[in-house]
Amino acid sequence: MYIGIPREIKTLEGRVGLIPAACAELVALGHDVFIESAAGILSGYPDKHYQAVGVTVLPDAASVYAKSELIVKVKEPQSTDLKYLRADHLLFCFLHLAAYPELTKALQKIGLTAIGFETVEVEGQLPILMPMSMIAGRLATMQALGHNVTALYPYHETLCEVLEKADLVICAVLIPGKRAPVVVDEEMVSRMQSGSVLIDISVDQGGCVATTHPTTYAAPTYVYKGVTHFAVTNMPGAVPRTASQVLSTALLPFVITLAQPNWVDNAALCGGINVQDGKIVHPALSTES
């Protein structure tokens, strides 16, 4: 199969879909791997490292998409990516479509098959999302060093009581494929101490805090009623080398399977399909429409 790895263009996203060691295994299996020039630079992998394992380096995104059947990237397609995607592409990346209805429609219109990392489930676990969530959680804590932290479950009365006293609140709620439920409403936020910090790791799925809106590392925070909000949608992108290595390790077995004609027999990958042939496939996502 022809496998393409475009350069990530989301703001300050330094990860790469597959590191050279993973590409080497794909090449050894007889697949042709193409990567956009400089796609691995921010993760510490220059073009020559890919060339050394048999990957073809192409000058731009258009060339990668044109040559490839399977597209492996990190974040959801950005507006400039969409013009290169075709109906015969198999797209494998983080999608978080519940938070991006316009992107969902665009992918439906293209007619391709799109599998979300976050919806690939194996025995009740999310093997691709989990390691990135762990990194995001650690980064979230580091963004607010020096504050006192209380961990709790989202019971309404307990939340109301604790939020009023908290210096730092890290929110992480997930229902695979669905938009994150709001567990912290606007009134709760308004009762928090001025100068406190709220980090919404669920922002990729729409956020579990009513006052959350997506931010980027170019402008990562904003203040609402005295509470500093941190809601970057690609938190692990700040540690690209480590994150790329961990992500690539989790991805490789699935990419190897996707590169085979019988990948449709794989329950985890089929269960991770979000859209296909112009239709919304994932049941959790279809309830959002």
At the first level of CATH, the class of the largest domain is Alpha Beta
The CATH architecture of the largest domain can be named as 3-Layer(aba) Sandwich
Q: Are there runs of 5+ residues with pLDDT below 50, and where?
A: none
Number of domains: 2
Strand content: 15-25%
> Can you write the helix and strand succession as a string?
EHEHEHEHEHEHHEHEEEHHEEH
Q: How is the CATH topology of the largest domain named?
A: Rossmann fold
Q: Which structural class best describes the helix and strand composition?
A: alpha/beta
Helix content: 25-40%
Strand order of the largest sheet: 3-2-1-4-5-6-11-12
Overall pLDDT: 93
Domain Alanine dehydrogenase/pyridine nucleotide transhydrogenase N-terminal: 4-136
Family: Belongs to the AlaDH/PNT family.
Protein name: alanine dehydrogenase
Domain Alanine dehydrogenase/pyridine nucleotide transhydrogenase NAD(H)-binding: 119-231
